[in-house]
Amino acid sequence: MTTTAYDEYVRSHWSGRAAAYDRSLAALCAHPAPSLLDAVDVGAGTRVLDAGTGSGTVAALASARGAVVVAVDAEPSMVELTRRRVPSAEEVRLAALPRLPLTSGSFDAAVANFVINHVGDPRAAVDELRRVVWPAGRIAVTIWPDPPPEAQSLWGRVFDAAGVDRPTAPTVDVDRDFPRTPDGLGGLLDAAGLADVRCETITWAHRTDPEAWWSGPANGISKPGLVLVAQPPDVLARIRAVYDEVTASYRDADGLLALPTAALLASATVPLAPPG
């Protein structure tokens, strides 16, 4: 696997956490999955790559549509979970962008759901997706925008109110990064030589149990997880009390949270090879 310092950080951060992710943030990441597959016209017989499959949400949905699915992920626990969840997949294997052990031009479509925001060389990752898709095939990706949506940014409010410092985490090298905006994501696909580039913002209210929203970071998932797992019990209890206060205004009558959030979805076509 090709890595940068950021890739190593992300992979160590997610190591062994498939079950914790599946119980918490997987439902949030699942929301754009139907639109992601629609953007690349996945249907019966489509040969599709799900790059960075996570707990297999997109792979399972594509398989239910009758697609021929190959799914890859950099985290072994995610691979094992997806193998169990999507037994109909043609293959689920350990592999990571931007170097995939797959034949060039072997897919009708490739998707990456909240993966480009977790790689150290986003352009190289998009280039690799282009490589494995045949000419006239489609690519679609999702990322979280910046500034972060309310659902994600509320953790900053919690930590500030609790008086907790947030550790500095590694980031993508400046010369490899891109603006996490519609123009920025669209520009990334355009720079990779893709055609018919489109980018839209999807907004929704993520409904979740307060315990599920807490449990992901409490088990080390996402950037807030870096903060929570580093705290002694008394500080963790203080953060939890503030969390309950901050999230109270988002609770519906049924006790579930309704958290406003958003994602960017970009899609494009692999151009036909120029005449020889």
UniProtKB/TrEMBL annotation:
**Keyword line:** Methyltransferase, Transferase
- Coiled coil residues, start to end: none
Quote the protein name from its UniProt record.
Answer: Methyltransferase family protein
Any Pfam family: Methyltransf_11
List the source organism.
Micromonospora taraxaci
What GO molecular function terms would the record report? S-adenosylmethionine-dependent methyltransferase activity
UniProt-listed GO biological process terms: methylation
The Methyltransferase type domain is annotated at: 49-140
